[in-house]
């Protein structure tokens, strides 16, 4: 591959957008990244949070894994890399990994005849119907969609949130767009490409808060439920504790209907593995603070004076009020996937969501990689 000088070009926000993150990097061979080039990529990532590399159709799963791991060289994988072999990967309905690079997962929609050594398998794009309390009527499903679930890629029990995630678009259905509805009493909508990945900046989410709210998130910590999700299935965020619960229509956290599983129905809980994390995570390059809360998995709030807010409905209301302004349309970057796009994102500086309602014959094939981090996020 002919490699030109590496360039970093910020993404131009579409009209009406107020996004202040996202950049495209050109002039790099991702199979052979020098230390100097990696330093430029890393610096760009922590300034722009979402980095797009175009025309990466031929990047190997190994190079994708190595790029991901370079952000946290001592990181182990989520635990499935060693245990999910090729055979299990084929049989497992919700977890496909590249047999020769099991840290790299295969996600998407539709029937795939053959890919990276896997034959004849079915992928299913998550649909909000399976998670939200109510859903868009079936006869409107072709034209309208929602944010499926805003989240950070993280197990949130025992393991630390990955530093970065890489997503490669191998196959993308072309042309179709949908109207995304918030359906929360606001009249907010967005025109989005089918199957976009939506991102918002945690730093912007923090900046949008009032001074009193900023002080609250600076001094409070968030406790996550034990076993909120199955860490083997992190990619599909297969939830355990919250599996019977339903999402708000914005995909930003759950309704409180007392449906969460009691401790007796969960795997054994090791209290030392419960995660109590700062609400604000510090950018390792710029020092800026990002409001980073995985809204679906929250359980308690720990205040500066030692008080603990245990009432789940109240915890959810407080966090929703803090996060909702930051997902309004002007602050959302909806990536318009083209085949060969490799997106690298700062998993500790953005929230993201799957979007879109596919027909079964609309084939989408992606590769994703992220690794549980060595270190916990650093607070203010
Ligand atoms: Fe994700």
From TrEMBL:
<dbReference type="InterPro" id="IPR051178">
    <property type="entry name" value="TfdA_dioxygenase"/>
</dbReference>
<dbReference type="GO" id="GO:0046872">
    <property type="term" value="F:metal ion binding"/>
</dbReference>
<comment type="similarity">
    <text>Belongs to the TfdA dioxygenase family.</text>
</comment>
<keyword id="KW-0560">Oxidoreductase</keyword>
<keyword id="KW-0408">Iron</keyword>
<dbReference type="InterPro" id="IPR042098">
    <property type="entry name" value="TauD-like_sf"/>
</dbReference>
<keyword id="KW-0479">Metal-binding</keyword>
<dbReference type="Pfam" id="PF02668">
    <property type="entry name" value="TauD"/>
</dbReference>
<protein>
    <submittedName>
        <fullName>Alpha-ketoglutarate-dependent xanthine dioxygenase xanA</fullName>
    </submittedName>
</protein>
<feature type="domain" description="TauD/TfdA-like">
    <location>
        <begin position="8"/>
        <end position="368"/>
    </location>
</feature>
<dbReference type="GO" id="GO:0051213">
    <property type="term" value="F:dioxygenase activity"/>
</dbReference>
<dbReference type="InterPro" id="IPR003819">
    <property type="entry name" value="TauD/TfdA-like"/>
</dbReference>
<keyword id="KW-0223">Dioxygenase</keyword>
């Amino acid at each position: 591959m002919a490699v030109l000088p590496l360039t970093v070009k910020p993404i131009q926000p579409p009209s009406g957008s107020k996004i202040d993150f996202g950049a495209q990097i050109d002039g790099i061979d991702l199979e052979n990244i020098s230390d100097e080039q990696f330093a430029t990529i890393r610096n760009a990532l922590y300034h722009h949070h979402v980095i797009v590399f175009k025309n990466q159709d031929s990047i190997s799963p190994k190079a994708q894994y190595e790029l991901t791991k370079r952000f946290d060289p001592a990181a182990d994988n989520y635990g499935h890399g060693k245990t999910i072999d090729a055979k299990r990967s084929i049989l497992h309905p919700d977890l496909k990994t590249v047999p020769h690079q099991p840290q790299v997962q295969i996600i998407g929609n539709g029937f795939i005849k053959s890919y990276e050594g896997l034959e004849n398998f079915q992928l299913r794009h998550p649909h909000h119907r399976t998670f939200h309390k109510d859903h868009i009527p079936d006869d409107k499903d072709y034209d309208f969609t929602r944010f499926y679930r805003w989240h950070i890629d993280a197990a949130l029990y025992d393991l630390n949130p990955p530093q970065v995630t890489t997503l490669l678009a191998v196959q993308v259905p072309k042309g179709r767009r949908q109207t995304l509805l918030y359906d929360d009493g606001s009249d907010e909508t967005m025109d989005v490409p089918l199957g976009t990945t939506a991102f918002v900046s945690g730093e912007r989410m923090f900046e949008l808060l009032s001074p009193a709210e900023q002080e609250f998130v600076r001094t409070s910590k968030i406790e996550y439920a034990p076993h909120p999700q199955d860490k083997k299935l992190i990619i599909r965020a297969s939830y355990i504790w919250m599996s019977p619960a339903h999402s708000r229509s914005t995909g930003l956290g759950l309704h409180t209907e007392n449906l969460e599983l009691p401790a007796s129905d969960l795997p054994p809980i090791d209290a030392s593995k419960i995660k109590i994390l700062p609400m604000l995570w510090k950018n390792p390059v710029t020092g800026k603070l990002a409001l980073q809360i995985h809204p679906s998995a929250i359980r308690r709030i720990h205040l500066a004076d030692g008080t603990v807010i245990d009432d789940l409905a109240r915890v959810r209301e407080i966090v929703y009020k803090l996060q909702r302004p930051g997902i309004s349309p002007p602050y959302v970057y909806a990536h318009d996937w083209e085949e060969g796009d490799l997106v690298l994102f700062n998993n500790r500086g953005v929230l993201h969501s799957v979007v879109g309602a596919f027909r079964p014959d609309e084939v989408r094939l992606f590769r994703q990689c992220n690794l549980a981090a060595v270190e916990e996020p650093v607070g203010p």
